Amino acid sequence: MSDRRRSIWVGVAVSVALLLLSLSAAWSLGGRPPESLSRLLTWILARPGTERVSGYYTLVDEAGNILLETARVVAPGDLFIDPAGVWHRVTRVTRDTAETVTVPPGVSLPQGFSSLAGSRVWAGAALSRGRALRPAHDLAVPLGTARQVIVIYHTHSDESYVPTDGVSSIPGNGGIYDVGEALSAGLTTAGFTVVHDRTAHDPHDAGAYPRSRRTVLRNLRFGPTLLFDVHRDAAPPAAYLTTIDGVHTARVLIVVGGANPMVSANLGTARRLKAVAEDLYPGLTRGILVARGNYNQDLDPGAILLEMGTELIPKEAAVRAAGLWANVVAASLGPPAPDTTPPGAGER
Question: Where do runs of H (alpha helix) occur along the chain?
Answer without folding.
Answer: 3-30, 35-45, 109-113, 120-126, 162-165, 176-189, 208-219, 237-240, 263-280, 315-333
